[in-house]
Design goal:
This protein is an alpha/beta fold. It has helices spanning 13-25, 44-53, 62-68, 78-90, 93-100, 130-137, 216-225, 230-238, and strands spanning 2-6, 30-33, 57-58, 105-108, 111-114, 144-147, 154-158, 162-165, 169-171, 177-181, 195-201, 206-212. The protein has a single domain (2-238), classed as Purple Acid Phosphatase, chain A, domain 2, CATH 3.60.21. It has 8 helices and 12 strands. The structure holds zinc ion. Zinc ion binds at residues 8, 10, 36, 61, 63, 149, 151.
Length: 240
């Protein structure tokens, strides 16, 4: 069984469709997402609809949560706030209810999925450093946990020591614990503009990071056409 693990899609339908095509070509049959389906780009409805059609297991990201409620957003940058206000206006009552009711952590097979961290997941902390990874590992009961939120693919491995590094293919060793950021489908921030996602092959026990080209200009034009901040469009070409 092969799972595609999709992170931070952020309403980028062109990137999502390119990734799903790549996943199919690689024999993926199941889907899970580390959240932030909406926000920043222009296709929140279509992205939600696509994931629901695929029966994608989904956790709630901070953008999903804030798009679904009416609270103020002082934790967000002004551009992110503007994007969330736009998203609130363009989702239906039922779409917002669906986002509001998403779980914050899910366990599937032998892995866990969360948006930010297993340590106080509603504080939406970012895991870049070993210390933050270690706090998450203390709450990890499966060998593998996938997360998102930073939009930067990165793996932490805890055996006797805690290792951190970039990855292309990880071989899951019995006894070790893995905390794996799958990067972002819809707004990569590691200076590589290609859409990122990971394939988890449960039989082979491998996690492979995939990078996929998509029609960035089409997404940029939509962002501009609907009146979302230009910066949301510009950053896609730079991957940051
Ligand atoms: Zn995000």
């Amino acid at each position: 069984m092969k799972y595609a693990i999709l992170g931070d899609i952020h309403a980028n339908l062109e990137a999502l469709n390119a990734v799903l095509k790549d996943a199919k070509e690689h024999g993926v049959t199941h889907y899970a997402s580390t959240g932030d389906v909406v926000g920043y780009n222009a296709d929140p409805k279509a992205c939600l609809h696509t994931l629901r059609k695929l029966k994608c297991a989904l956790v709630q990201g901070n953008h999903d949560y804030y798009a679904a409620i009416n609270e103020s957003m002082e934790l967000f940058s002004p551009l992110a706030q503007k994007s969330i206000r736009w998203t609130r206006k363009h989702l239906s009552f039922f779409e917002r209810k669906y986002l509001r009711n998403l779980p914050i952590i899910i366990d599937i097979e032998d892995f866990t999925v969360v948006h930010s961290s297993l340590s106080n997941p509603r504080q939406w902390n970012y895991i870049f450093k070993r210390k933050a990874a270690d706090a998450s590992f203390r709450n990890q009961f499966n060998p593998v946990c996938f997360f998102g939120h930073t939009h930067v693919p990165l793996a932490f491995i805890k055996e006797k020591t805690l290792e951190k590094g970039l990855y292309e293919t990880l071989h899951i060793r019995p006894g070790a614990h893995y905390l794996i950021n799958v990067g972002s489908v819809g707004q990569p921030r590691d200076r590589n503009p290609k859409a990122a996602y990971a394939i988890y092959d449960l039989e082979a026990q491998t996690v492979t990071l995939r990078r996929v080209e998509y029609d960035i200009a089409a997404t940029q034009k939509k962002v501009r056409a609907v009146g979302l901040p230009f910066r949301n469009a510009l950053r896609l070409a730079n991957g940051r």
